[in-house]
Automatic annotation (TrEMBL):
Gene Ontology MF terms in the entry: ditrans,polycis-polyprenyl diphosphate synthase [(2E,6E)-farnesyl diphosphate specific] activity
Transferase listed as a keyword: yes
Record's keyword terms, sorted: Transferase
Native organism taxonomy: Archaea, Methanobacteriati, Methanobacteriota, Stenosarchaea group, Methanomicrobia
Organism: Methanoculleus thermophilus
Protein known as: Undecaprenyl diphosphate synthase
InterPro entries: UPP_synth-like, UPP_synth-like_sf
Signal peptide interval: none
The organism's place on the tree of life at top rank: Archaea
Length: 196
């Protein structure tokens, strides 16, 4: 009952929402609470957030195979792009949701450089815009949410340089809508400077 009241207060006070959000969770988080990925998508959609990304940090993506049905269920309420192993799946309609399992920002940048070299790009022609055009994830989150207090991964290392970071003090398995709303409230209280 108290959480419902607190949720209403938080919702009432939300004025400025991020357009793009990235949740960073671990493979163990996903195994412990696979249903939360759908819930967080629903909450984001209800609030009118434009797009959401979930990065699931793991060295063993195949260990999350049993979670794939829960992840794919997102396509019933949103447009899902799923990166799993070396595959990319797109399904559904609506708000953009990307799920990247076991991807690394360092790998992504190294891959950009390899593709530029393969395409014969003159090193003098390489600038920020060209590098960004080679990135796999064309996604610059306004807000990165990390649950459970662990450190961030290097995922979206280039794209999130100006993102606001929020470390939730609860584990992914215990995530409630009120925790998500707390992160959004914190976001709207910040003065974004984009590196200036």
């Amino acid at each position: 009952m108290i959480y419902r009241l607190y949720e209403k207060i938080l919702l009432r006070d939300l004025q400025k929402l991020p357009e793009q959000i990235c949740f960073m969770i671990t493979g163990q988080d996903m195994l412990d609470a696979p249903e939360n990925i759908f819930r967080a998508t629903e909450w984001s959609r209800e609030l009118g957030i434009r797009s959401v990304m979930f990065h699931i940090s793991t060295d063993a993506p195949a260990s999350l195979e049993r979670c794939l049905p829960r992840i794919r269920a997102i396509s019933s309420i949103a447009r899902l792009t799923l990166y799993y192993l070396d595959k990319k799946e797109v399904s559904g309609e609506g708000m953009d949701v990307t799920v990247a399992i076991g991807k690394s920002g360092r790998e992504e940048i190294a891959d950009c450089i390899r593709r530029m070299a393969k395409d014969g790009i003159d090193p003098e022609a390489v600038d920020e815009d060209l590098l960004e055009s080679y990135l796999t994830y064309k996604y610059e989150p306004d807000l990165v949410i990390k649950t459970g207090g662990d450190h961030l991964t290097d995922f979206l290392i280039w794209q999130s340089v100006y993102s606001e970071l929020f470390f939730l003090d609860v584990n992914w398995a215990l995530l409630r809508k009120v925790d998500f709303l707390r992160a959004l409230r914190d976001f709207q209280s910040r003065a974004r400077r984009f590196g200036r």
